[in-house]
Write a structure and sequence with these properties.
Blueprint: H1 10-22, H2 25-32, H3 36-50, E1 55-58, E2 61-64, H4 66-92, E3 98-104, H5 106-111, H6 113-123, E4 127-133, E5 147-150, E6 159-173, H7 175-181, E7 196-198, H8 201-210, E8 222-224, H9 227-235, E9 241-244, H10 245-249, E10 255-256, E11 264-273, H11 280-307
Protein name: LysR family transcriptional regulator
Family: Belongs to the LysR transcriptional regulatory family.
GO molecular function: DNA-binding transcription factor activity; sequence-specific DNA binding
């Protein structure tokens, strides 16, 4: 499909891309911060300029036509190229000032990042830090964050990552809960207990099954999409919950379930965009996080060894 010479309008292309990715004009309008009629006019103008229909209307939703699917591939490439422009500009900046955004889980953001960032603030007071507390994976390529702390290795070729070490998770419960329901002596006995978990119950049941722990959906009685809420429910005596050992070691009102059982290990990755990694302020924050988190993981290993 060839775009008519001299008629390219990026606003129309953005409206088309947002509508295609979100499935409706109203959702695209929310994404772009515009009104639905404005998005509709931009998409219609693009269809008129190309002389093709890009969407078929299906109830309240929109379905891409063959021409729309072909165009979507090209517009996505354009959007990715546009996103690289500020990335490249940021990567060339050597000033030790400006904003750096970091995304991590809500538990990590609350319990670990503040003390780490306080040390950074003393060393580099002109760097502004924004912490994006989120349990989903933010898109670094689209500048949803500059640096991410993740527990899965990134696969995108434009990202660079450093493995900092491993964290260790265990089941914990409040002493009150265990006094009432009994202390399990094996993983098999866990099946008779109530659990606190994340909102996607089926996924957690499947994950536990992969660890040799068989529970039914009925046992996963209390759920939240927040790790902080999950942990507070465990502390309140509502059931057993998985938590990283470093957090539990600093929580005196919980008890380790199945002492001596193997930990559930998980990797800790520090991730950024390759082009941003050359910016001095990004590099300083990245290196500070890498050093501090690595040291924290080693201290936790030592504390766990001392308990053994």
């Amino acid at each position: 499909m060839n775009w008519p010479a001299g008629t390219f309008d990026w606003n129309q292309a953005r409206a088309f891309l947002a509508t295609a990715e979100h499935g409706s004009l109203s959702a695209a309008a929310r994404e772009l911060g515009q009104t639905q009629p404005t998005i509709g006019r931009q998409v219609s103008a693009l269809e008129d300029s190309l002389g093709v229909a890009l969407f078929d209307r299906a109830g309240r939703g929109l379905i891409l036509t063959d021409a729309g699917r072909e165009l979507l591939t090209h517009v996505r490439e354009m959007a990715e190229a546009a996103a690289r422009i500020p990335l490249t500009a940021s990567g060339q900046s050597q000033a030790l000032r400006g904003k750096v955004s970091i995304t991590a889980s809500d538990v990590f953001s609350t319990h670990l990042l503040p003390s780490i960032l306080a040390d950074l603030a003393r060393a580099a007071p002109d760097i502004e830090i924004e912490v994006i507390s989120a349990n989903d994976l933010r898109d670094l390529s689209r500048r949803e964050a500059d640096i991410a702390i993740r527990h899965v290795r990134p696969t995108e070729p434009q990202l660079t990552a450093r493995l900092l070490g491993e964290g260790h998770g265990h089941f914990y419960a409040s002493p009150d809960y265990l006094d009432r329901r009994g202390r399990p002596r094996s993983r098999a006995e866990l099946a008779g207990h109530d659990f606190v978990g994340f909102a996607d119950a089926n996924r957690m049941v499947h994950t536990l099954a992969g660890l040799g722990i068989s529970i039914t959906l009925e046992r996963l009685k209390y759920r939240s999409d927040s790790g902080l809420v999950l942990w507070e429910m465990v502390r309140a005596g509502m059931g057993l919950g998985l938590m990283s050992a470093d957090i539990a070691l600093d929580t005196p009102d919980v008890e380790l379930v199945l002492p001596g059982d193997e930990a559930f290990d998980y990797p800790v990755w520090l991730v950024t965009h390759r082009e941003l990694h050359s910016a001095r302020r990004i590099r300083v924050v990245f290196d500070h996080l890498a050093e501090a988190i690595t040291a924290h993981l080693k201290r936790t290993e030592g504390r766990l060894s001392g308990l053994g």
